[in-house]
Amino acid sequence: MLRGILKTIVVLACSCTLGASANGADTIAPAPGLLQSPERAAGIVSEHQRDSYRSVLDAYRAGLVQHPHDVALAVAQCGFIQRFAWSEDLEWSDAAAKDFTACQHMLDERFPGQPEVALFVLEHRYGKDALAYGEPLLAHSSEWTPAQRTRLHAALSRAYSAVKDAKHAGEQALRTVELDPSNPCLVEALRYLVRSRRTDEAQRMLASAPVTKTIWLEAQRINTAAELFPGAQARDELMRARHAGLKIDAYTSARALFRAGDVASAEAALVAEKQPSKFMTPQNRQIRLDVAFNAGNSLAAADLLRDEYDRTHRAMPLVSAYARLLDLSPKMLMRADLLPLAGALIVYTVLLVAAPGLLLFPAHYRGLLRARAKKVSEPLFGRIGLRHAWWALSSMYFALYVFGGFRVGTASLSPAHGTVLRDGWQQGVASSYIWSLAVMALGLAWVAVRFSWREWLGSGEWKKAWFVPPALYLGWSLLTFVVSHHSMPAGGPGVGWQLAFITGAHSIGGLALPLLIFAVAVPIIEELIFRGCLLGGLSRHISFGWANVMQAALFAALHQDMSHFVQRFVLALIAGWLVRKTKGLAMPIAMHGVVNMFFVLAVVRNL
User: Fold this and answer.
1) pTM listed for this prediction
2) Cα–Cα distances in Å, from 55 out to 48, 58, 312?
3) What are the C-alpha distances in Å from 198 to residues 129, 193, 205, 542?
4) Burial letters for 495-530: b for 16+ Cβ neighbours within 10 Å, e otherwise?
5) Could you tell me the maximum CA-CA distance found in the chain, to the nearest angstrom?
6) Residue 538 · residue 363 · CB < 8 Å
7) How far apart are CA 536 and CA 32, in angstroms?
8) Which of 28, 113, 354, 564 lies 20 to 30 Å from 198, alpha-carbon distance?
9) How far is CA 36 from CA 39, 42, 89, 189, in A?
């Protein structure tokens, strides 16, 4: 009854106001020059809007005078005011903002402890202010309705997200979805579960959630599934949305299909999308390029690279993608519009090959100064100098960063979180890395034969004390292995590709293949490069202490994983120290191999 009366009051107030405005426009002649001044004409309209706003607000206030205990009516009044207070287009929004502040104070004073009032106030606060207001409400929410508790947890999740507290934002989002599986907080809850290594639970939660009726929310779910979950989960969500009658955009559909390994369907979805390249987002250009490469469509990939270069005029970020294009179709080298990328690839290769000089030339200069001062540096290996160190590092750079680009390269067109990897992509990483190791080994053959068998195995009398540092380090690694029994080793750029390689190699050849590559081949090659050639070459020109620190720092840095920098730096220092003590590479290779074996076993046990 009350709401019917209020509705009548509001309608009458609006009708009277609008009627007066219309009548005034009919009977009052425009002032001279009014029609030539759109600002003045717009001001008249704004004033009429303000009069209508005041009439409706007076109706609300009259209703509250008659029914002072109607919580819903009081909250509705504040909601009405807020729509005008936060407008950026109204000249009188400041006055509405003052009305909104006064209305919120009225709610706090007249209806303390009312859930609807508390939720309204909370939902109109942000960040730390919202947390300070909302956290105490949790202690009193046990008697609230499920819908009210859902709103509380959702508001707190948004507040924690605003202050960059992902953990608590995820926890609150998870509570929200447990109360309301269709809530938009589902995406935040899925991310939280995956970060907490509860991927299976996240997949079940998405599969059981009702399909939302809002297209953009459902598209967000599908894109999140493509980013977070392996296999066909994103495609399954896409099919659910289609069965519900939702028309999902081509790029979201392509990501879901591509993630599931259905490259042909992904390509078909993108072919039907005729959006011009200049209007594409970086993420959309990225998925087009990835699909083109995986579908073997060299012409489409070449056109995308040309468009990207025309748009940015930057060739270097496209070098790895261009290398992959040449691997797909060598004849693309003859395309004139891609010549800037060919030039960039040549420059990139030359820079990589020359890069070791930044380290080795200063060492050579320092060696000349030490020689003039008659300070003799004792080389670790008789036939190894700086030119061999240069060759070894250049071979490694070329194999990993140039040849590797021909195998699995792609373009950095979008932020990392916007890329989608096809199911089974780890196998491609493993295959590419094995090929890169083969090319690297071929390049290193020239320096490997310069080590005598005694320099490989070591010579002289070994002391038991020499085993203490490597034993302590291996104990540390073993402890890491035990701790990681129930959790995957921490990720990062360096660890990320290692995890991908081990996962892919394990799917190809079982446990034996990643152990053979990672615990045998990699230690031999890396010890030859860093402790044999680099440390051996530097030790001819500078003191062993500085040479050991320099090679250890470069070894740790090139793994591109700052979270484990210290651990790898210590490994390299101990390995260099063992080379000097044992006069050979065998013991460092063995220690390095055992450490890598622990890492492989830790990863495989969590697959």
Assistant:
1) 0.78
2) 11, 5, 55
3) 31, 5, 11, 51
4) bebbbbbbbbbbeeeeeebbbebbbebbbbbbbbbb
5) 114
6) yes
7) 93
8) 564
9) 9, 11, 21, 56
Q: What mean pLDDT is predicted for residues 502-511?
A: 92
Report how far residue 141's alpha carbon sits from residue 143's, in angstroms, rounded to the nearest whole number. 5
What SS3 state is found at 222?
helix
Which own/partner contact pairs does 357-364 have at CB distance under 8 Å and 24+ positions apart? 357/390, 359/550, 359/554, 360/386, 360/389, 360/390, 360/537, 360/538, 363/537, 363/538, 363/541, 363/542, 363/547, 363/550, 364/541
Q: What is the per-residue pLDDT across 100-153, written as a single tens digit (0 to 9) for each?
A: 999 988 988 898 889 999 999 899 999 999 999 999 999 989 889 999 999 999
Report the mean per-residue pLDDT for the chain: 87
How many whole angstroms separate alpha carbon 367 and alpha carbon 5? 96
Q: How far apart are CA 322 and CA 433, in angstroms?
A: 19
Distances in Å between the Cα of 114 and the Cα atoms of 64, 101, 134, 154, 311 are: 16, 18, 13, 18, 56
- Name the amino acid, one letter, at 322: Y
State how far the Cα of 33 lies from the Cα of 10, in Å rounded to an integer.
35
pLDDT tens digits for 320-373? 889 889 988 999 999 999 999 999 999 999 998 899 988 899 998 988 888 888
| DSSP-assigned letter for residue 416 | G
Q: Is the pLDDT of residue 26 over 50?
A: no
> Amino acid identity of 581?
K
Distance, in Å, from the CA atom of 501 to the CA atom of 505, rounded to the nearest integer, reads 6
What is the spatial distance between Cα 166 and Cα 160, in angstroms, rounded to a whole number?
7
In angstroms, rounded to a whole number, what is the distance separating the alpha carbons of residues 232 and 259?
7
Residue type, 291: V
What values do phi and psi take at 63, rounded to 5? -65, -40
* Residue 196 CA to its chain's centroid (Å): 16
Residue 486, pLDDT score: 46
